[in-house]
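Predict the assembly for these two chains.
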Amino acid sequence: DTEVTQTPKHLVMGMTNKKSLKCEQHMGHRAMYWYKQKAKKPPELMFVYSYEKLSINESVPSRFSPECPNSSLLNLHLHALQPEDSALYLCASSQAASGRYEQYFGPGTRLTVT
Amino acid sequence: QQQVKQSPQSLIVQKGGISIINCAYENTAFDYFPWYQQFPGKGPALLIAIRPDVSEKKEGRFTISFNKSAKQFSLHIMDSQPGDSATYFCAASSKDNFNKFYFGSGTKLNVKP
């Protein structure tokens, strides 16, 4: 089973709202990722958690706040977003070990900021 | 600077034909090269991947060809089907930074029936 689940599938929020995206995997992976993908572009890495610790932050604005409550769950808290933040937000997971590089993506959350 | 360059940007192939997508890289430290398939509104799905110790890897109708000296790799889709119509991304990563994938810009494939 290589399934990563994400909720919600779609989210519309105003610029003053606070919302959260959720991601879950049960493959025993110890690395989890948040990516942002704009239309017709490749996924763009935002954050990486390895063994529940933040290991990569690609200089993402503070209005995006990641959280890894345990090895199976990953959240992305959103606050005071801008319309240009509208995108597909993808979660992925992988083994946190050199030599085991495969990343498995979830279906994404389509976020629209109004 | 783009670490992985992908071409073509779009590709139209007749049903039953061969689809070929190419990627080139500069960083010789890269040692893992996956291909992802993405349908509209869905997340990318890992299709096939290769390490530089082999020159070719085949899984069903999908084949990766790898040329280490030229720093190029390509995806071949044999007997292309309309259901293969999707966007394909190549990527690369290295053992020193294996969590970070460098993606190509993507190729939108349209297989005509």
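The longest strand of chain B covers residues 30-38. Chain B touches chain A at residues 32, 34, 36, 41-46, 49, 87, 89, 91, 93, 95, 98-101, 103-106, 108 (CB under 8 Å).
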